[in-house]
Amino acid sequence: MYIDRIGFRLPSKLAESIGKKRQLILNNEDATQDNDTTIPTKKKKKKQKKPRAIQRSLTPHFDLCPETYHDITNKNKWRPIQCFVSLTDNLLPNTGGFEAAPGFHREFHSWVQNGRRLGSSRSDGGGLETPIIDDGDKLGHKQPCIGEYTHVHDRELMKRVQHISVKAGSVVFWDNRVPHGNAYRNDNEYCQPTTATSSSSPKQLSSLPLQSSGARAVVYCSFLPDIPINRRFVERQLIDWKLGRAPRVGDRWIKQEEEEEDGDGDNNDSPREIVRLSELGRKLIGLDEW
Predict the structure, then answer these.
(1) 34 pLDDT exceeds 70?
(2) pTM
(3) CA–CA separation, 164 vs 103, rounded Å?
(4) What are phi and psi of 48, to 5 degrees?
(5) What is the pLDDT of residue 27?
């Protein structure tokens, strides 16, 4: 078992508001550069970009490549079960919560064999049934896998994705062959806690109720069977942990700015805080055997 990452989903209105302020700052910076006399006058001014929310939804997807499900070549681990611990209540649709197509793992392999399409069809008016072809697959080309990420383009499958109601403190497990994502919007209202002030310290702010912010918060985890490929993954993670550096392999979707291009080395010479693990923690991280 390992903890993947902590995820937050801001209320959509708040994310859009911050996005507008951010883009305004960037546009003003571009305008200042364009007015700089050191810049050649022939240079065209940059077209101002439209503001975008700083955070958007993650549409239904698989954290695997369907056609290579049974092939471990070029993979760093095998993770059949995914899960998260919910830190906030998420009981209603359109509040940034978890969405999935329950039970689809039973149809996953036939869906792959059928070209990533459900067995849906429609009549051409003459009694003949023709398969429904997704707009993203008109030429019969499957959407590529991006590493171990595959976006769902099958419209019939998308119709089966539904909100999964979760209370704070609950744990949700799902087979990695189940398409999942989060809601397109989080329509919760952001409520500034009355106890927060401009002079509040980070520690004071962190102690305020998370639920009152309107954000959804979860801790993503995964379960790795005790097989050779996962043992090697754990060994590499342990090396990074002992050296006090960010994991070189895993599920990080964003490249760390301080990383070297080749991913080698650790330029951080500052003293590292020693993490003292419990007996259970040492077993979970792979230092001690069960």
Answers:
(1) no
(2) 0.72
(3) 13
(4) -65, 130
(5) 81
